[in-house]
From TrEMBL, chain A:
It comes from Nothobranchius furzeri (Turquoise killifish). Residues 290-313 have a biased composition (Polar residues). Component of the Golgi-associated retrograde protein (GARP) complex. Component of the endosome-associated retrograde protein (EARP) complex. Pfam families: VPS51_Exo84_N (PF08700). Residues 279-313 are annotated as: Disordered. It is found in: Golgi apparatus, trans-Golgi network; Recycling endosome. The keyword Protein transport applies. This is Vacuolar protein sorting-associated protein 51 homolog. Keywords: Endosome, Golgi apparatus, Lipid transport, Protein transport, Transport. GO terms for cellular component: cytosol; EARP complex; GARP complex; membrane. GO terms for biological process: endocytic recycling; Golgi organization; Golgi vesicle transport; lipid transport; lysosomal transport; protein transport; retrograde transport, endosome to Golgi. Belongs to the VPS51 family. Involved in retrograde transport from early and late endosomes to the late Golgi. The GARP complex is required for the maintenance of protein retrieval from endosomes to the TGN, acid hydrolase sorting, lysosome function, endosomal cholesterol traffic and autophagy. Acts as component of the EARP complex that is involved in endocytic recycling.
TrEMBL record, chain B:
Keywords: Repeat, WD repeat. One of its GO terms (biological process) is protein ubiquitination. Pfam families: Beta-prop_EIPR1 (PF23609), WD40 (PF00400). Belongs to the WD repeat EIPR1 family. The keyword ATP-binding does not apply. This is EARP complex and GARP complex interacting protein 1. Residues 296-309 have a biased composition (Basic and acidic residues). Residues 7-272 form the EIPR1-like beta-propeller domain. Residues 292-311 are annotated as: Disordered. WD repeats lie at residues 197-239. SMART domains: WD40. It comes from Nothobranchius furzeri (Turquoise killifish).
Amino acid sequence: MDVDADGSVAMSEESGRRRKVHGMLKLYYGLNEEGKAPEQPESLNPCDINGPHFDPELYLNKLRKECSLAELMDQETCMVKQIRSLDSDMQTLVYENYNKFISATDTIRKMKNDFKKMEDEMDCLSTNMAAITDFSARISGTLQDQHAQITKLSGVHMLLRKLQFLFELPARLNKCLELQAYAQAVSFHRRARCVLQQYSHLPSFKGIQDDCHAIMEKLAQELRQKFRDGGTSAKDLSECVELLLQLDEPAEELCDKFLSHARSRLELDLQSLEAEIKPYPASKKEASTRRSSGNMSSGSPTDNSPKMSSLSSPTLNTDILEFIDRGCNEFVSSLCLVITSYQELFINHAQTGELASKNILQMANGKLHTFVDDLTTRYFSLVERRIQEEKGVSDNSLLVRALDRFHRRLQAVSKLLPGSAVPNRGTEIVIRAATERVKQYLCALQNFYMDSLTDVRQALATPRLSVAGGAAHLGGPVTGRDAPASLPELLSSLSASILNQIKSVLASVHLFTAKDITFSNKPYFKGEFCSQGVRESLVVSFIKFVCQSSRNFCESAGDKGGSTPPALLLLLSRLCLDFETSTISYILTLTDEQFLVQHHSPITPVTALCAEAREAAQKLLNHYVKVQGLIISQMLRKSVETRDWVNTIEPRNVRAVMKRVVEDTTSIDVQVGLLYEEGVRKAHSSDSSKRTFSVYSSSRQQARYAASYTPSAPMDTNLLSNIHKLFSERIDIFSSVEFNKVSVMTGIIKISLKTFLECVRLRTFGRYGLQQIQVDCHYLQMYLWRFVSDENLVHFLLDEIVGSSAHRCLDPSPMEQSVIEVICERGFNNMRWSLKLGGSQGFLSICYHLTSASNWLGPVCPTLF
Amino acid sequence: MEDDAPVIYGLEFQARALTAQTAETDAIRFLVGTQSLKFDNQIHIIDFDDENNVINKNVLLHQAGEIWHIAASPADKAVLSTCYNKTSDSRVVSCAAVWRMPSDWESGSHESPDDSAHNPQTLELLCRLDDSSHGNAAWSCGSLQVSSAATLEGKGQLKFTSGKWSPHHNCSQLATANDTAIRGWDLRTMSQIYCIENAHGQLVRDLDFNPNRQYYLASCGDDCKVKFWDVRNVQEPVKTLEEHSHWVWSVCYNHSHDQLVLTASSDSRLILSNMVSISSEPFGHLVDDEELSEGEDNHQEDKTKEPLKDSVVSTYEEHEDSVYAAEWSSADPWLFASLSYDGRLVINRVPRALKYRILL
């Protein structure tokens, strides 16, 4: 190993040294590679022993000057060594070169010998070749005469054969005619025609020509006959035409004939198509009414074709896909066939063949276009009629597939006829059908919405018999009595069904833009259909419709506030609010995603729709508050107006109407609570229900009565009262409410109490009348504070009521606060008791009378109850 | 163009009854009747000095009972009528009477205004009207009280809330509000001539005839709305205003410029609306031909001026309690008074900007 390594090292050293030596020798002999030498920096140093400018004298002087003796000695030995090795190298090289030179000389000598042999052989070959050429020339010279003769003979033979053909031609043609091999006959004739024409001055040829003409005349006649008969297939027909063309029949006439023939057959197709639609107009009315009355929401398959018309013809039950299929297979495919054969015959031939004059080409093209346009117009009108029949919205895929097929087939026509307007018109029909469909869907959605509202209405109208599960924990008999089927359930089912319906409609409409549908990549379906058609006129219109119809509930309900049940108003309001918060943006995002709506054209922004929905929700809720408020205030008003307050008896209990008010308020509270959040209320003191009234205890009222006849200068009467009012905010009675329970309840209670106040002010009270009002107000106080956002509002209004009644009292001597409290406590406990028992109104009042009778005079102990 | 601040006057009693002294066309004068069950009721005669923005008042005693409604005679300054409740033997009886004011109240008040307050003069009773069966039906009786009794008998069983004489047709027609309906009556035939069923969702509180357009009337009620009717078409109101947030108790046309309508409501607000489209001058002030020929400039100015739209002119919030009555002054068409239940009388003016737009 070591040896190896050493060896290799030595080898590399050796080779390195060699190269160096070579380099030096090269240098010495001036054998530098060209181009490289001048670039090498030539050492100009005269002391460089290897440089070309070496000056031995200088070098020696320098060495002698610079080096010591020892160094000089070393230098000398080193130099000697180098000289020696250089000498040996030179010797080796010279020897090598010598060897090579000798071998080269040998090779050259050998080559000289070989070439000599080859030269001899070449000479031999050339003499042989000359002999061969000589022989061949001799042979061809002898054969030349015979060859010319043969050529002549074969020419004569050909001519004779041609002549024979000509002479036999009439017979052949007749035979062909008999065999009905028209094509062959025509081709024969064509072959002979020009010859006959050329030699027609010779009588014999003339006879043949005449015969041929007569026969061909007959043939043409026969062909025309066949053409006219029309019973033949398209292929036969085209063959016929081709032959006739070859017989120099006028092309225009042929075109017309061909087309008219084709027309008659296509019209048969059209008639059979029309036969499928025709019965519709007769039964259209019934059919359409049936359809419109048909409930699409039920999901039952709507009958696309009316059954009564199926009695008249069995083919009437074809659905649109079948219809279009038939149209495509029969009409469009034969139309295509006609176009192709026509083009084949008249146009392509004209381009290549002898008919190549432009006029004919244009004429043929023009005729074809008018022909196609004419027929497709009729076809389109039929298709459109059929599409219009398609009113049921149940199965859209069928329609889309039909339209797709329709459109796809027209592509074939467009390929055949590049300049034709047919595909565009076809696309227009598809577009019209699509927009029509979208309209129908919108209508269906609207109907569905109205139907679901009717359902909700019914559900609200029929109270649920079993107060099971959800409603039970919410508040005993109050809920059980008049709370309808649970509102949140209705709401969620309503909104879910609306959403589902929208989704399913979107899915159906989405079929129009599916990838595998040919017309979906038309610019209309990519752009306008998505944005204007689906987004605007379907989704946005529907949302607007929902908002609009909701708003209509507020107005159509009229001033009497009757027709719409309040619960429905509440429900719709919540629905609109949900629309605003989530549904609208969800639906629109869904639409945008599904349809990749590009916002080129102006579209309704989500925010505008949300604002509209919110406005509708607000309006509905306000209306709800108004209606409920009016119901309660109607009770209060009646109770105040119908009583003789001057001559009433001493109050022993709270009037029943107040209990009714509280009950109704509670049930409204429950109802609203089902749909709206609690909302914020101002913190109220723990003993709100115990608060005493300020009828006479507060200085305000006393001030009012004390100041009797002081001269009233402007601005100083009722100062205290006014100051009091300055600090309480102005109360807007029928004002907008917020979307939470507390705000709604506040609105209702405000309306009720304000009515109470105004009614009280119109009456005159006796002593006990005032006391009754006091009791009633205290009772209301005990219950109502918990419903409102700011209990001070209730206090203020009730204060006003008691204050006003005190003022309207002939003998204002108020009841003791403690007595009021006792009476009300009893009512309170009764209420609680009856709530526990789940009693009806009648039961409640019975209980109440019992307890009041037994407790009125005895020691009052509220805790007993 | 700053508008003058409203002038406020306070009474010490609650009050509902307010009227302008119709026969008085020089001084701005309002009559207010008080409502008190315990003290003698008063009629305050309130003179407003437009120049100095000062109120002068005189008090007359109305001992018969609390005043629910008051009306001044359009012919005789001194004559007025009241509807009042009398309590006797713990029974409340509604009455109406025509009174003559004592002749010397005016001079007396000028000498010593304080004095008159302490010794209020009593009204001189002219005649009593047998109106007891009709509750607080308020009659704007003028000089035609005689026939009113007769008409009332014709429709005895109905319950009235309000009634007004039509200023047109030679004062032979009147309209009444019954519950939610408005009925028109003709005195010559003593029969109903029109009936607006369900004019308002709830009680109709008041109505007023347009002084310049004979078929137009305004009504207001508990549904917070003010509606304008053409009595030839009773199906639909011509216009509806929904500005108030509680019951509207009074509606009042301006006598000279019928586009100005005043409404008072128990939401403590008074609203002045400008109903140009249904007024007798829908295109603003009509320029006479003579004026046109006189100056082209005027004409051009008129052209540049866009017609006014129906709008709420302003909302007055000086009251703290329900406003039950509002009335235009008979002397100054740009001035009106309103009265709230707590006895506060506020005198306001039409904003100057609007005034000049109407006039010019």
